[in-house]
Design brief:
Blueprint (H helix, E strand, L loop, with lengths): L7 H10 L4 H24 L7 H18 L9 H16 L6
């Protein structure tokens, strides 16, 4: 964790600022959704060999959003745990309408 954030609550506004582009947020949403669906499938079927696809799905969509739309480096590189948590919190916030899809 970085010294610049005391906790996730302090980090999340920064995280949202790094995801101000709507297309980037949409790609994060799709990637995180695919991670959740794939994980559910793996757990339901016992096909654990598919677990390697989780980071590819999650990070692939997210990093494409940063590269092509947001034009910044993903927060994952400096704040990996907080960024992972942020992906799921932002996913929830988009689902509940708190953040615009």
């Amino acid at each position: 964790m970085s010294d610049e954030f005391k906790n996730f609550q302090d980090f999340y506004p920064y995280y949202l600022g790094e995801h101000s582009d709507r297309s980037c947020r949409r790609l994060h949403f799709v990637g995180t959704g695919l991670v959740i669906i794939t994980l559910g499938f793996v757990l339901a079927t016992g096909r654990y060999g598919l677990l390697w696809t989780l980071p590819v799905l999650g990070y692939g969509f997210a990093w494409a959003g940063h590269y092509f739309f947001e034009k910044n480096k993903p927060a994952t590189f400096k704040h990996p745990l907080y960024s992972l948590i942020g992906d799921f919190v932002m996913f929830r916030d988009i689902l509940t309408g708190r953040i615009r899809f």
